[in-house]
Amino acid sequence: MSDPLPTSATIGILGGGQLGRMLSVAAARLGLRTHVFEPGAAPPAGDVTHKLTTAPYEDVDALAAFARSVDVVTYEFENIPTAALDVIEALAPIRPGREALRISQDRLTEKTWLEALGLSVAPFANVTDHASLEDAVQRIGTPSILKTRRFGYDGKGQWRLTTPADAAAACADMAGAPAVLEGFVDFSHEVSVIAARSPAGEVACFDPGENLHEDGILRRTTVPARLTPSQRTDAVLMAAKILNALDYVGVLGAELFVTSSGLVVNEIAPRVHNSGHWTQNGCAVDQFEQHIRAVAGWPLGDGARHSDVVMENLIGDDMDHVLELARETNTALHLYGKTVTKPGRKMGHVNRITPARSN
Amino acid sequence: MSDPLPTSATIGILGGGQLGRMLSVAAARLGLRTHVFEPGAAPPAGDVTHKLTTAPYEDVDALAAFARSVDVVTYEFENIPTAALDVIEALAPIRPGREALRISQDRLTEKTWLEALGLSVAPFANVTDHASLEDAVQRIGTPSILKTRRFGYDGKGQWRLTTPADAAAACADMAGAPAVLEGFVDFSHEVSVIAARSPAGEVACFDPGENLHEDGILRRTTVPARLTPSQRTDAVLMAAKILNALDYVGVLGAELFVTSSGLVVNEIAPRVHNSGHWTQNGCAVDQFEQHIRAVAGWPLGDGARHSDVVMENLIGDDMDHVLELARETNTALHLYGKTVTKPGRKMGHVNRITPARSN
């Protein structure tokens, strides 16, 4: 598949959360239909998709029917079971490709791969049991952070080791899950680059954003980020290197630590990324549409920034203040339609823009 | 109903065309669900709605089930059969209200009402048959234009009278449909005001846009419009006067002729309007979200313009150039997902923005 999909085509999306929801809206804006596959009931993307399949990732028949009904499959999260991908790949192209998923599904694989590519990452060591954790702590020291190799997000599956004595408790908590120990990086702040690559190898990057996390969850992204011109260039070149090495198609988010000795890759995500939500109100073409364009084989769009933006996540009972937020000037509200509010749950976000023009 | 709808609420939308489609996306952005009622198969709004009912406006059971499933009903077009509105209104509030529909469904009623409100309209006369047409031509003169009182859009149902001798043929073509004869207005250009009013009576206007029509169809809207400061103020005051007189809730589009002796109302539409599509890429809150906010009893949003915009409709085989348009810088593409292209059919639009900032 290399020709651009016609506007009557259907994009399959694995995962019906807020990212799938905003991808679906972006596809519609290009005249494309979407079919969302999601195990959970009443998913956010279900409100804005042409078709929704509710089935577990183990349901081979449902996966096959889904794959047959679409022209290309993409996804909103990287932890899709490999067996499900095998079923789909026999029937429809998957974009971004399997290699990006294989690498980003496992922290150890990802860090090893990034290092081999010549990029800086935090010091890390493989942890399989108590003995290898003791070795790792000796080599990397504390403070450091123990992370499960798979299925971590929003700070889940992570244990902070302040002293070597914390190792035993962390190891017990992990209950034998394969892990990596990461050394702390002395960074001033974190930025992320949202970059896209088309099937033809065209690459486009949005302006880097500066991220602030609270309790392991992204709280705020500010654009522009504090970066020198050469750091900005480095960030874009690093992202392009990753995309090209993967022969990547779609949008990828790369989180980078800014240190006195250069940029260090924290992690990469083979999908649209929370830290790219600002593009919805800062650019003519946002990260969701850019992803759909790439996946559909369309030309990448113009991601130039027309306004400065501060994106702030609405988490848990931040939702109590929605009507106040709705009254703010220069503020765009984006809610995900989740019916149940829980502490730590991302319910929406606001983009506060600073237009150069004032009317 | 005066409290703001909670984010779990459902907005019913009558009509599943492109306006319904973009209203549905805007509702989702606020976390609201939509249920679209549309007689035609595979409507554009069907790709982005939580629920779609496919039934004719004469299906009382379907209308009642639709009305019962939603918290409020709005619409994308004004020519909804009165009997259908009666069924719905017994079960759910309709916003904007019936009075706005009654007036805008009939050109004669609309012009009479606007004139009684103290606003300028083109000279007009009621036409019921050949004799009254002859009278009207004598009074209003030629060139003038004969329009059916109901169901006209995009230049349909209109006959241009260059000389009095054209009256006979126009009358025959109309086949007895009630009509109005409108005198030509000597105007320099047409602008439109997209204005919103909340249930609490709060009014907000977007910056006026300047419209260019071709073959009776809107081709382009340019913002800002060529208006003096006092014309701009007049335009906003006229729109506010109309909204307040109707105790209106929602967005209304008013087309105004700019003449040397002031602004003349061409027509009003009790809904989001093609000439307001530029707001999608020029403002933090666009006309679709503004309409949903009003209809849901939410605070009106900030419609200040952050960029200049030229909106251009994609009509018929303009669609052949979609991939070229997708490559343009500072250009946002909005396609409607219509599977059949026909001459004169609106298939999408582009918003070309001029950001004050250049990166």
UniProtKB/TrEMBL annotation, chains A, B:
GO terms for cellular component: cytosol. The keyword ATP-binding applies. Keywords: ATP-binding, Ligase, Nucleotide-binding, Purine biosynthesis. Its EC number is 6.3.4.18. Pfam families: ATP-grasp (PF02222), PurK_C (PF17769), RS_preATP-grasp-like (PF22660). Residues 111-296 form the ATP-grasp domain. GO terms for molecular function: 5-(carboxyamino)imidazole ribonucleotide synthase activity; ATP binding; metal ion binding; phosphoribosylaminoimidazole carboxylase activity. It catalyses: 5-amino-1-(5-phospho-beta-D-ribosyl)imidazole + hydrogencarbonate + ATP = 5-carboxyamino-1-(5-phospho-D-ribosyl)imidazole + ADP + phosphate + 2 H(+). GO terms for biological process: 'de novo' IMP biosynthetic process. Pathway: Purine metabolism; IMP biosynthesis via de novo pathway; 5-amino-1-(5-phospho-D-ribosyl)imidazole-4-carboxylate from 5-amino-1-(5-phospho-D-ribosyl)imidazole (N5-CAIR route): step 1/2. ATP binds at residues 107, 147, 152-158, 182-185, 190, 213, 266-267. PANTHER family: PHOSPHORIBOSYLAMINOIMIDAZOLE CARBOXYLASE, PURINE BIOSYNTHESIS PROTEIN 6/7, PUR6/7. Belongs to the PurK/PurT family. Homodimer. Catalyzes the ATP-dependent conversion of 5-aminoimidazole ribonucleotide (AIR) and HCO(3)(-) to N5-carboxyaminoimidazole ribonucleotide (N5-CAIR). This is N5-carboxyaminoimidazole ribonucleotide synthase. The gene is purK.
